[in-house]
Task: structure prediction
Amino acid sequence: MSKLAILLSHPVQYYSPLFVEAAKQLELKVFYAFQPNAQQQGKEGFGNAFEWDLDLLSGYEYEFVDNVAKSPSSAYYAGCDTPSIGKRLTAFRATHVITFGWYLKMHRQALRHCKTNGIPIAVRGDSQLDPQLPFWKKFLKKLYYPFFLEKYDAFLSVGKRNKAYLMHYGVPDKKIIFSPHAIDQDFWKMERKHSTEKFRFIWVAKFISKKQPLDAIHAFKVLLDQHPELKERVELLLVGSGPLLKETKEKARNVAQILFPGFKNQSELRAEYAKADCLLLTSDYGETWGLVVNEGFSVGIPAIVSKACGCSADLIDGRNGKTYNYDDIDSLTNQMKTILNWNIEEIQQAKNSIKQKNEVYNFTSIVKSFNRFVEEF
Result:
């Protein structure tokens, strides 16, 4: 009987509900390298200590593997150093292994064990090609990655950009399994209800440079400058915390239509989506996906997404939202105007398209990819 081991650095709010669903069909066990405390989670770009208001460890089998790193972390290679991972996989009698990423020492230790013992191993990732990457990094990756990636038996690819990335480094199509990025739609789905008659744009992220919060502020201010009549009709909500929050608030000073409710935990954030009309995702190429779009789609709201974001190629089709050229404020502003002016028919088309995307980018599709890996490799 197949037994699937999944390796992850630490419990993640997006993945734990997935493992609960997968455990209904597969005999699996998740191996973690560490459990971050509230202070450590706060350091990862949020700015404030906190704990997720969801139970991340119930409904599936898991184990915390001995991590010998002096400072356990997922932020650097040696932060997840688990020399006993091979013994733990053997004790579980794993027949198949999936690692979420390949960048940690834990992942390399598991890869070595699997190659030595003839255990099929797959890696699930969301990397995309970054045109802004320095030439020397592109050169080194082009030399090393084909050799390194050849060691894996299969790749669970979250979308089009990630598949293109893998094939760029020589991974054959037959090794790639579609395993779309998704969130717990049952949790996020809420009935939309407005507390105001204003059209509300919502931006949800850490206030860090990769997320480009100032672009959202800039475009919204341009929108109001070009169309003063909208000042009574629109508002922008920026949800989150982080090191750039103070600077962003300063840029928004004296603009009453821009609101900062602060960090919202998962249960609180649902209500914010339910009161919104359109999501903005303004990130640079470091945003390999953008699960906030999946969250917004679960509630049924369209999105305007930077073309630099990985999810733009999969989720945004022109009917359920718009894309714009990264770092192009005029382009972003124009797309905001477009959605503001949607008629009833266009709004209905957006709802239909969002529903169609939700039927593909969900946990069911991911669990199918796990099953396919176990059955075919």
The mean pLDDT is 95. The CA atoms of residues 143 and 169 lie 9 Å apart.
